[in-house]
Design goal:
It is built from 15 helices and 3 strands. By secondary structure, the protein is mainly alpha-helical. It is flat and about 100 Å long.
């Protein structure tokens, strides 16, 4: 009796579910049942991600300010009245949308660029140079990542609140805490570093640096040192090697670090809310919070949803512009790390 006749034949359903759906002649087979489970899992994740987005978009396209009584994922009307009201006058504060947008962009982009510049130089130093207490300093850089941001806000608040510029009268100004008005006068407050976008930017930069340094240091370790040695043989100094060789090679990871930092800075709320008190310095995230009321019935839900969509758009735009570098940085980091 032949071997083929001794092998029991599988029924049609088993052969259908175990058929190879990978379409490849080499590698591991992908049975149909596993392909179906993978697709179901992907559809579930897609629905979980898109559900709140579809609900907010549908809510923003409504002309009614009340919260809908039923769950609506597909808009029954297309009205841009909420977007017009938000762009004309977001809240009761006398601050225009353009000013809020300028504050958010300046804070997010400024903090992202400054933190990126400081982080890449620090990461390069940790990666390439041997100096005393190098390991200890790396651990000290990592420690702030273990602490909540709210816990670090109090010392930063007290520190930045000490730097003030006051008018002592008769054309005399003083810079506290180093200089004070004569006669123990308090003077008229002109500038408080804590209550300014500059102070908030310094505080946010301090919180963004630890992650940026650790992220870039791990990537710079993967760049061969032989490239720098070859550049040194050709006559390049340390600065030329850093700017013309290291930075271009690290550009994908720089884009990833900047994008992650930009998302956090753009959505940052706690530090700005604790530090700022003047409406002219408010950001879009703070304004979105100001649109909420004590009760759900007092919230203009269509304007709130429209504002949420507008706040989310810049992140999507930045990702589209940096998509190639971000994908390259993530894939390269995944292979090398």
């Amino acid at each position: 009796m032949s071997a083929n006749s001794q092998t029991p034949k599988k029924n049609l359903l088993v052969r259908f579910l175990t058929m190879n759906t990978s379409g490849q002649t080499s590698g591991r087979d992908l049975p149909l049942w596993r392909q179906l489970l993978t697709q179901i899992l992907c559809l579930f994740i897609l629905f979980s991600v898109m559900f709140p987005i579809m609900y907010i978009v549908t809510l923003s396209l409504s002309s009614k300010t009340t919260r809908p009584s039923s769950l609506q994922l597909i808009p029954t009307e297309i009205s841009f009245v909420a977007y017009k009201q938000v762009l004309d006058h977001p809240t009761g504060n006398p601050v225009s949308f353009i000013q809020l947008l300028r504050n958010s962009i300046g804070l997010s982009v400024g903090v992202g660029l400054v933190a990126l510049l400081v982080a890449v130089t620090a990461a390069y130093s940790f990666s390439r140079f041997n100096f005393k207490m190098r390991e200890v300093l790396m651990v000290l850089v990592f420690i702030p990542l273990l602490m909540p941001g709210v816990g670090l806000a109090t010392p930063l608040y007290l520190l930045l609140n000490q730097l003030k510029i006051v008018d002592c009268g008769q054309g005399v100004t003083a810079l506290l805490p180093w200089f004070a008005c004569d006669g123990g006068l308090k003077g008229r407050l002109i500038f408080n570093l804590r209550d300014s976008l500059l102070g908030v930017g310094i505080a946010i930069t301090a919180g963004a640096l630890p992650f940026a340094i650790w992220n870039l240091k791990g990537y710079l370790d993967t760049i061969p040192k032989e490239l720098e040695e070859a550049a040194a043989i050709d006559g390049a100094d340390t600065n030329q090697t850093f700017w013309k060789i290291i930075l271009p090679l690290a550009m994908p990871q720089l884009a990833v670090t900047f994008f992650i930092g930009f998302i956090g800075n753009w959505q940052e709320f706690v530090t700005s809310w604790l530090f700022l008190s003047q409406p002219k310095d408010y950001t879009l995230a703070m304004t979105l919070y100001n649109m909420t009321g004590q009760y759900a019935s007092s919230i203009p839900w269509n304007r709130f949803a429209a504002m949420a969509v507008i706040v989310a758009l810049p992140v999507a735009v930045v990702y589209i512009f940096l998509q190639k570098q971000i994908v390259g940085g993530l894939t390269t980091g995944g292979v090398k790390g």
